[in-house]
């Protein structure tokens, strides 16, 4: 009955990031620049890994999929956010809102699990280098990837199905720049206890399981690093891990801050700012902090540039 009652609401109005007219155009160009860098960085990395056979290893297999996920979920969110800066009425249909919500959740949950798969890959490479080829075989990598996207689909379906059962009020103004769970629940006319419970349980799993996996992996990695006698070996191992730890902290920290707190004590404007980190900043930085500091990627990029220059 709730789903039937909510169907009369044909559209939502997205308030956007800010309602101050003086900063709308500067913010438009700022986030347009972020989006261009995000698209170029992630598509460039996808192309580079695909064209260079030396990068066809488990580590770059996961980086390839990370870039694909970052590109997709940034594209799900940012173009609509840019419209809020230049249009007087930034509306989105009910079906469009639920679609955006589903794909946003699918890619953001997939990202949390791909990060944990990358941490496991680094654990095997550093702690069991002699068994790395066997442990991270193509079959294992494929199964891990299926698990990543499977968890993304399950999480997105759980949240979207619950949201489609919510009865929304006549006031359809959503105080956000996208269709996210908590801002939509604030427009509900009925109790949202079940929905918020689903948020805490599902998001707790989607953040908790990868976080525990990453912490255990890095605890074992650090233990192994401290047993390395060579200073150069330690430095190389720390360099490999530091970028991943920074990105993981930004992604999971901002996500936990937004979703693992009761909506009644989290100001929505503060939630919007926190959401910017994992919807805009993290996808833009990932190609830099994961790959451009990597020697193999730099060598592959130079080869392609030199080849094109020679041609």
TrEMBL record:
InterPro entries, A to Z: GPCR_Rhodpsn (IPR000276), GPCR_Rhodpsn_7TM (IPR017452), Olfact_rcpt (IPR000725)
Alphabetical UniProt keywords: Cell membrane, G-protein coupled receptor, Glycoprotein, Membrane, Olfaction, Receptor, Sensory transduction, Transducer, Transmembrane, Transmembrane helix
GO annotations of cellular component type: plasma membrane
CDD domains: 7tmA_OR8B-like
Boundaries of every G-protein coupled receptors family 1 profile domain copy: 41-290
MF GO annotations: G protein-coupled receptor activity; olfactory receptor activity
Topology versus the membrane: Multi-pass membrane protein
Protein name according to UniProt: Olfactory receptor
Major site of localization recorded for this protein: membrane
Lineage per the UniProt record: Eukaryota, Metazoa, Chordata, Craniata, Vertebrata
Transmembrane segments: 27-49, 61-82, 94-118, 197-225, 237-260, 275-292
Residues annotated as signal peptide: none
Family: Belongs to the G-protein coupled receptor 1 family.
Taxonomic source organism: Chlorocebus sabaeus
Localisation: Cell membrane
